[in-house]
Design a protein that fits this description.
By secondary structure, the chain is mainly α. It has helices at about 1-25, 30-50, 55-75. Keywords: Membrane, Transmembrane, Transmembrane helix.
Length: about 80
Amino acid sequence: MLALTGIVAVVAFLVFLEVPPLLKKRQIRELWVFSLLLIMGTGISIALSLHIVIPNPIDWINYIYSPVGRFIENALRISR
């Protein structure tokens, strides 16, 4: 629970620090990008603090390319 409180406090501080200048300069695109990245980072941080397993993209790449790798390995194997 302490971790969640810390995450929310840091997010609130970042919003307090970054959003007013973006609004003052009317940088709407930058505000959208900032918000999107902040929401994604906050979600991942909360998930990690709750010990939720987050899938690793490298595992997906290995799953997709391992059959291709085995095929190439077998095709290039030199018979003795």
